[in-house]
Amino acid sequence: MNSNRLLQISLFIDHNDAVIDVGCDHALLDIYLVENNICKKVLASDISENALNQGIANIKKHELEFDIPTIISDGLTSIETSLYNTVVLSGMGAHTIMHILHNKKKLKTINKIIISSNNNYDLVRRELNKLGYYLIDEKVVNDKEHYYPIMKFVKKHKRNHFCEIKYGLLKISNVPYYEFIVKHNKELKPLIKKDLIKKLKIMLETHYYQRYIKKITGKKLK
Ligand SMILES: C[S@@+](CC[C@H](N)C(=O)[O-])C[C@H]1O[C@@H](n2cnc3c(N)ncnc32)[C@H](O)[C@@H]1O
């Protein structure tokens, strides 16, 4: 797999998952999942016939036409979602993603949603909480000079902290991304002090920050 982003999405998928890849386009993720026996089954879908044809051509190239069914569908509309428990939405804008998820009836059996949105990550996190999905894990990948948060939501009636909604989950592996946010966020820029610890303090004045500092320095902050 030569896309960091798709590779990370695959790391959020487990053996018992039955996956609908909405907006599959080239279907490279689906091919990777099946070839590596990562999950139970995969459905590759796209709204565009042209895009799906490209996916089908790739699937045939890998001789997986009997393993990866394909369907043209606007989001989940034409899909029998009760046969699946996981949805992947990647490479689309936040508004398209929210349009696709608006029909709650289609989400009855969906326990996990993995999202790699092109923009408005905070909007995605907030709206997923409203739909009854909780952000449980997140990995930010740097693919071709761009940072992409890959978000894993599970069905749970629990809201994320507002800092998590705004900036994502604080994980040591995502620190370069937080540095990037600080550098490019006009609101935060005037507040930035010299070192990373202070930058993070400004950004994330929460218990996560305390836990994070303790983890990297071994010290508790006063
Ligand atoms: C940039 S590609 C992303 C391909 C792949 N998922 C990835 O992350 O690399 C976006 C795909 O989403 C599809 N798409 C856009 N709106 C959609 C919708 N409402 N339902 C299904 N697919 C959609 C487009 O046709 C396109 O093939």
Topology:
Blueprint: H1 4-11, E1 18-22, H2 28-35, E2 41-46, H3 49-61, E3 70-72, E4 86-92, H4 94-101, E5 112-117, H5 121-130, E6 133-143, E7 146-155, H6 162-167, H7 175-184, H8 196-203, H9 207-217
Parallel strand pairs: 1-2, 1-4, 2-3, 4-5
Antiparallel strand pairs: 5-7, 6-7
Helix pairs in contact: 1-2, 4-5
Bound molecules: S-adenosylmethionine.
Features:
single chain; alpha/beta; Rossmann fold; 2 domains; 7-stranded mixed β-sheet; 22% strand; binds S-adenosylmethionine
Structural account:
- It is a single chain.
- The chain has 222 residues and is an alpha/beta fold.
- It has two domains: 4-167, Vaccinia Virus protein VP39 (Rossmann fold, 3-Layer(aba) Sandwich), CATH 3.40.50; 170-222, no CATH class.
- The protein contains nine helices and seven strands; from the N terminus they run αβαβαββαβαββαααα.
- It has a seven-stranded mixed β-sheet with strand order 3-2-1-4-5-7-6, with helices on both faces.
- Helix 1 (4-11) packs across helix 2 (28-35) and helix 4 (94-101) packs parallel to helix 5 (121-130).
- The chain starts with a helix and ends in a 5-residue tail after the last helix.
- Bound molecules: S-adenosylmethionine.
- S-adenosylmethionine is lined by residues 22-25, 46-48, 51, 74-75, 90-92, 96, 100.
